[in-house]
Amino acid sequence: MSNPSKPVRPAGAPSALEVLVRDKRFRGADGVLVHAIDEIAFDVPAGSFTTLIGPSGCGKTTTLRIILGLDDDFAGHIRLPEKEGRTAVVFQEPRLLPWRTAEDNVRLALPDAMESENLDDLFAIVGLSEMRNRYPSELSLGLARRVALARAFAIKPSLLLLDEPFVSLDEMTATRLRQLLVTVWSARRTTALMVTHNLREAVQLSDRIVFLTERPARIRGVEVIDRDRSARDADWRERTVRDLDRRYSGVL
Amino acid sequence: MAVEAESAETESRLHRLASRGWAPKALTFVSLLGLLAIWWIAAIIADSRVLPAPPAVLDALHRDAVTGELWFNLAMTLMRVFFAFVTAMVIGSAIGIALGMSASANRFFDPWLILFLNIPALVVIVLAYIWFGLNEVAAIGAIAVNKIPNVVVTMREGARALDPQLAEMAKVYRFGRAKTLRHVILPQLQPYFAAASRSGLALIWKIALVVELLGRSNGVGFQIHLYFQLFDVAAILAYTLAFVVVMLLIEFLLVQPLEARSTRWRPKRA
């Protein structure tokens, strides 16, 4: 039997992001040492959309933070797609600067070389053309998330990380935003890794889904979804979710 | 019928006035008028040299304004307030932010801070004059030293309250040092800076008067000391009021517009 944690690499696609994290522990707020990750190893092929899914508190966000370089206290290694490339992130919270307008929030993230970049298309595609001069306090959570998405795509990243970007939105807004993400991502294709605990969301958006176990996290399996996104109708989605749910029962 | 129409018109006019922002200002005016009335009535009842009525104070004000003495002394005090304020804000902010960011530095210097917070202003002033002589630098330094610990405490709170989430965002999006300081850190410290300046100005000018009383030969504090020896309460009140008016002008013409500008992104309270 093959080691389920061994990276699965589809033929022909060069891996863009390689992640290996072993034995990650951290001290919780109550001072107790938490063994968050046993061993997680996976690849994200270039230009693909991969989703990391698992139960709450299984180290998904920790993995993202390690990839982002916000946590360097771990064993293992991370190989980013391009050495000089930029990594963009959409956090669980929009994390906008409240004292800057929506447009300034996006513009401030731009590298110096792109400073005067025309952002009209980007704002149009995320549906914020009318909101560019609003302050974050004047935006709903859904709109603020759009700004965060715009900021992430604006820097033309070689890697895009998304940490439960649609959590705590009402279902209608979340659905609209997921479609929006597919649209923007298709237009400005980049290697993407999303963390979620919503299987329906994962099935709708991903090329590959990496299932994690409970804490301390290991990889339970990797599913490749090669159906075209436009062909993923509600029926197919429900069937796939049911099927995955049965095979990975207890994961979520 | 006509009365009704008229009252409706008055009401709408009042409403327009309120929407233009005049109603709150009118209220402030009425409130100040009330204070003046209380003073005047008390002066009439007391009927004594120690509590002169407003016209007597106005007289004293006019007397010193004509000779130019009032303006000169106001300017001297204002100069000391200005330099002490700038010194205290710069040094206090730097120390406060450093302590807020480093837990170990804070643990080490916290006892010092408590000590300085509790040294009476008078002691600092007297020691400054003894050690550095009766000069301008000692005077301004003494005022600043009295204020610095308060600025440190406020700015330390500000530095502690910095949002780590925004710092992470700035790191991932490679803001760099200058951009992070200007767009992420300083705006978060702004309310603390404003609070420190506010309480700072009020405290500093009060201490400045004591400094002048003890070791300078001009300024509002010196004049008040002089009129105290002459037992001229009207002149004492005249100088006090003149300086309060100056400070109010600074507040309304400088501090508040600046603050309104730097907080324009905040949601307006309904």
Automatic annotation (TrEMBL), chain A:
It holds the Pfam family ABC_tran. Gene3D superfamilies: P-loop containing nucleotide triphosphate hydrolases. GO terms for molecular function: ATP binding; ATP hydrolysis activity. The keyword DNA-binding does not apply. Keywords: ATP-binding, Nucleotide-binding, Transport. InterPro entries: AAA+_ATPase, ABC_transporter-like_ATP-bd, ABC_transporter_ATP-bind, P-loop_NTPase. Coiled coil: none annotated. Residues 21-239 form the ABC transporter domain. The keyword Nucleotide-binding applies. PANTHER family: ALIPHATIC SULFONATES IMPORT ATP-BINDING PROTEIN SSUB 2 (PTHR42788:SF19), TAURINE IMPORT ATP-BINDING PROTEIN-RELATED (PTHR42788). Belongs to the ABC transporter superfamily. This is NitT/TauT family transport system ATP-binding protein. It comes from Fulvimarina manganoxydans.
Automatic annotation (TrEMBL), chain B:
InterPro entries: MetI-like (IPR000515), MetI-like_sf (IPR035906). The chain crosses the membrane at residues 26-46, 81-100, 112-132, 226-250. It is found in: Cell membrane. Residues 74-254 form the ABC transmembrane type-1 domain. The keyword Phosphoprotein does not apply. SUPFAM superfamilies: MetI-like. One of its GO terms (cellular component) is plasma membrane. One of its GO terms (biological process) is transmembrane transport. It holds the Pfam family BPD_transp_1. Its main location: membrane. Keywords: Cell membrane, Membrane, Transmembrane, Transmembrane helix, Transport. It is a multi-pass membrane protein. The keyword Translocase does not apply. CDD domains: TM_PBP2. Gene3D superfamilies: MetI-like. Belongs to the binding-protein-dependent transport system permease family. PANTHER family: ALIPHATIC SULFONATES TRANSPORT PERMEASE PROTEIN SSUC-RELATED, ALKANE SULFONATE ABC TRANSPORTER-RELATED, MEMBRANE SUBUNIT. This is NitT/TauT family transport system permease protein.
